[in-house]
Design a protein that fits this description.
The protein is about 0% helix and about 35% strand. It is mainly beta and about 130 residues long. The protein has a single domain, classed as OB fold (Dihydrolipoamide Acetyltransferase, E2P). It is globular and about 40 Å long. The protein starts with about 30 loop residues before the first strand and ends with a strand.
Length: about 130
């Protein structure tokens, strides 16, 4: 699935999709996506991948003084269950294929796409 399709549109008047979402709502579903790693934050346990969709979730993930925007979709490996195979954290510039749950991230009042992985087996780098 392309990064642009993650989250999708509103499912109904009570279940929202993501800002700028396209295609069917897929929040809560197991998905596979890919892209070049554009940013890594090992402290908060997430990284971004960009497949060329150049998504921008509105957060400035890079620390000061840079504070430049990071393009791509956020992949979180925080909150994995105890005993899960740890994620071999990719480096910026590597190509990654990620299998996880299509989820959301609140940035201000906006619902943005997020992928949650449950095991190191769900992140493959090349």
């Amino acid at each position: 699935m392309s990064n642009r399709s993650l989250g999708g549109t509103d499912l109904n008047q009570y279940t929202f999709g993501v800002v700028g979402g396209t295609g069917p709502n897929n929040i809560g579903l197991l998905i596979k996506t890919w892209g070049i790693v554009t940013y890594v934050n090992t402290t908060e346990r997430f990284f971004y991948i960009n497949d060329g969709s150049n998504l921008y979730d509105g957060s400035t993930s890079r620390p000061a003084p840079d504070n430049s925007p990071v393009l791509g979709v956020r992949v979180s490996y925080a909150d994995m269950v105890a005993g899960a195979i740890p994620v071999d954290v990719p480096e910026e510039g590597e190509f990654a294929v990620v299998t996880g749950i299509s989820s959301t991230l609140m940035v201000g009042d906006d619902i943005r796409p997020l992928v949650r992985v449950s095991s190191g087996r769900n992140v493959v780098t090349f």
